[in-house]
Every structure is written in C-alpha cells, then in structure tokens.
Amino acid sequence: MSKEYKADVIIIGAGLAGMVAATEAIARGRSVLLLDQEGQQSLGGQAFWSLGGLFMVDTPEQRRMGIRDSVALAAQDWAGSAQFDRTEDANPRLVADAYLDFASGEMRSWLHKIGMRWFPVVGWAERGGGMAHGHGNSVPRFHLTWGTGPGVLAPFESMLKAAKDAGKLRFAFRHRVTALEVHHGVASSIAGEILEPTDAPRGQSTSRTVVGDFRAFGESIIVTSGGIGGDFTKVRHVWPTDRLGAAPKNMIAGVPDYVDGQMQEIAQGAGAGIINADRMWHYTEGVQNWDPIWPNHGIRILPGPSSMWFDALGNRMEAPYLPGFDTLGTLRRILSTGHEHSWFILTQKIIEKEFALSGSEQNPDFTSGKWGQVLKSRLGKGATGPVEAFKKHGADFVVADDLETLIKGMNKITPDIPLAFDHIQSQIAARDREIDNEFSKDAQVTAIRGARNYRGDKLIRTAKPHRILDSSAGPLIAVRLNILTRKSLGGIHTNLDGKVIGQDGEIIQGLFAAGEVAGFGGGGYHGYNALEGTFLGGCLFSGRQAGRCA
C-alpha cells in the first residue's frame, strides 16, 4: 500500500506542540496534514500524562495568594537557572526572553479564552540553590490546570476536530517518517512507512510492523516529534559526564518508549543543526510504577520540603539538596557517591500532607476537574488514593513502626549497599532536636518553616514541623528513589519563529521545529536548568510561533 499526500503545512508529531501549531496554521487559512507514528488514541503525546502545570508570571491566581511577582523577578530567576554560556545560546536566549514576555502577558488570557482554568493554590516548584541570583523560583509560579494534562489538551482537541470536520485538517496516524527531503536549502517533502493499525491503550508499546509507505509534499514542514527520554541508549550517549558524573547504569522511564528521538536524527541527517544535546532534565525522585503502562515505567514523587533525604551510603544530603529545591544539583550529588539511588525517610504525617505523584493518571481528583473530588482526596484522612497504593504495593516503599525495622526493610531492597542503623539514627535524632523551639541551624528545618510562611504551602503542601521519631506521627516510611528520565533541554536549532537553522548556520527554507525536539524553542531555551511548568509552556509558545509562521 502506497499513499501520497499534499498540504500547505505538514506537521510531524501530534503532541501538544504539534496540535498548537496545527490550530494556528489552520487559523491562517492553511491546509494541514498532522502525522504521528502512534495511533489516534495517543493524540496529545506526553502532555496527556502531565500534571498540567504552567509557568506563568504575575497572575490573578498569584495575587490572590499574596504572591508578588514580576517579569523582572522571573527574568532574574530564568537567567540564574539557565546560565547561558555558549555561542550557540544566542537564539535560545531570544526565545527565553520572548517566552517570559508571553508568560507575563497574553499567555493566561489566551488560554483562559479557549477554556483553561487553574487550581487557585499556585505551586512552588524548583525552589533553587540558595542564592538570589542563582537557580530556582523566587516565588510560586506553578499553575496547575484543572483537568491536568487532558485539560490542557482539551481545547486544542476540540479545535482540531472542528477543522477536520470542515476539511481543513487531515490526520495520518501510524505514519512513521523515515526521510526528510531538503534540496538546495529548501525542505519540500517527507517519506516514510505506514505501520499496521493498533488498538493498544495509550502509552503502551505498539507494533512496528510495516504495511505500506507514503510520501507527503508541502510548502512548510514542522517537526514536533518530542525528545529522547524513552531510549536509554541515546540518553547515555549525550549524558554530560563532566557536569553530572557517570551516566546511571540503571534508570526508569518517565516517558513511553515511542519517545525515541528518531525524528531528530532524521532532521540532523537532512542538515538541521542540533545544539545543546547534552542538556537534559532527569528527576531524582523516581519510583517504579507498581502498575506500569510502558516499559520501565517510573513515576516521579513531587515532594514537599520535610522528608529527610539520604544518599545511598546513608549520609544526609546537605542544602541545597533538599526535596523540591535543585533537581540537577541533587542528581550530581547522588551520582557523586558512585551509586544511583537515594532514600527518603519520613512519617505518615508527612506523606499525607506532602506527597503527590506526577501525572494525570496519578491525580484523578484534579484530572476530573471537580472540587468535591479534590476536597475529599486532599483533605480527607490518609494520603491520596494513588499515594497510598504506592505505599502498599510499590517495590521502593518500606513501612515500619520503628527505625530499626525500617532500616532492615531498606537493606532488603539494597542488600549490596547496606545502611548502618546507628549512622541513620544519629542523623535523624540530631535533626529532631532542632524541632523543639523556633530557632535552628538546620537548613532544612529553616526551609520547612519558610515554606509554611506561604499560605498555599501551609494549607496543602507542607506538614507542621514534628520529630521524625515521634511515634504519634508514624508509622515511619522509607522510599528508595531512582533516576527517572524525562526531558531533552537541547535539540534542533531554531530562530524565534521556529525556522530551522542548518549546520551551516543558514535557515533551511520551509522547515520548522517546535516543542521538545527543539529544546522547547531555539534549541534550548531553558539553558541548563528548568523552572518547571516550562515544558508544557514551551510547547504552547513554540508551537504557536511555528504555526503562525509556517
């Protein structure tokens, strides 16, 4: 079976960036062909699985929570986190500046107009490394969309359905691109294979059996095919050993296996420039999913600030390597031990108030968009249902009534790297002595009290300070934490309009890229560090730019 298509704009990848680009191109009167190697049930890509958090600046939600934000403060935080230091960072800088203008300007009104709404308590993610001019968010900026990832996708799905019904859009699912054809500096067509149909549920591995081929011709081609986090070999190949230490031998996957970087390689083979490939964003708080959907499926714990964090050798992690503060710094600190895992030790009181799990499927209350379910889940007795399920079934969880039994359970999980009871006990006891009055030299205790100065954290995110070894706060809980692959911060080099820049430094006419495959814009608009909420935000912004220009 062989097929041929023609459209004004061809978009490769039906995730959020591709969907946004399609809606913008259609609004300009362009005909669009939207392809994806997965089935229709996977429309929306990784965004479907997301928590739906968006980085926005100086919003009504922030002001209602008493948060004073500004584009100047956000720009300071972004610059301190990005740490741009390469010649090729010129375009990423431009995209970052434009995104900050967008996030502090029309972003919220645009999204509100098409139907998005946000949970009123703004989250404080990635709090940073301790210096005002350094990495991290100075204030809460993480706006959780009602409906989580599906809620972000819903308005664009609706617009695309209407465009399809009107004959302005054609979907081509199970179409895998194998060639991008560029002649004399102009992108003109693509070619590829048609895969057999699949009814596999979203996220599960699908067949790669080929049943035909295709070619497609268009005036503009937009690549929105995502990153490399599902292919551990590719992750290790570009791993920045000099900055982070040796790549882990064992990792778990925060994305499905179709996130394979294949299209980025094809674009590079056609002459597209790839920059900042060594900049990546992988989490340190990953746990094995007891009910997996894709291979090596891991889930990230979104921790509040109170769990005690120990490295694989049983040494308490020092500031700023505290829960929720400095992701890549903590990754480097963990790997410096020569091992790949670390441990949380906490209490039932902490897990009830502070543990959340990343992902739409792990937050059915927020995904439902119904206040009743949220109040019942978040303010009822015990942790949320998904968290309690992990506590009961998760291979990385240990629950015990006393510390000695807890550590025995931890050593059963990692018998080759046993922990010493006396060493752990002495560190916890020292921390517990700091709880009895309002003064402390312990940086984490100070951080907990600082977090509770924000009423959003005090209300739903940070437990009241208490002794870890207080039996009334128990039982005790330990969680082995694994390295979880997630995002590519570098990728195809583009300008502010999403136009692809070739390896010779010249624009490839008719070729665009957006979303994670373009480092969320420019080839790496985050620089070295992300501030969270900027992955979906980057897909929205860069997809919109490309769709308006293609």
Automatic annotation (TrEMBL):
Classification via Gene3D superfamilies: FAD/NAD(P)-binding domain (3.50.50.60), Succinate dehydrogenase/fumarate reductase flavoprotein, catalytic domain (3.90.700.10)
Any Pfam family the entry gives: FAD_binding_2
Top-level taxon of origin: Bacteria
Keyword list, A-Z: Flavoprotein, Oxidoreductase
The keyword rRNA processing is assigned to this record: no
Domain FAD-dependent oxidoreductase 2 FAD-binding: 8-536
Needed co-factor(s): FAD
Name recorded for this polypeptide: FAD-binding dehydrogenase
Protein's organism: Paramylibacter ulvae
Organism lineage: Bacteria, Pseudomonadati, Pseudomonadota, Alphaproteobacteria, Rhodobacterales
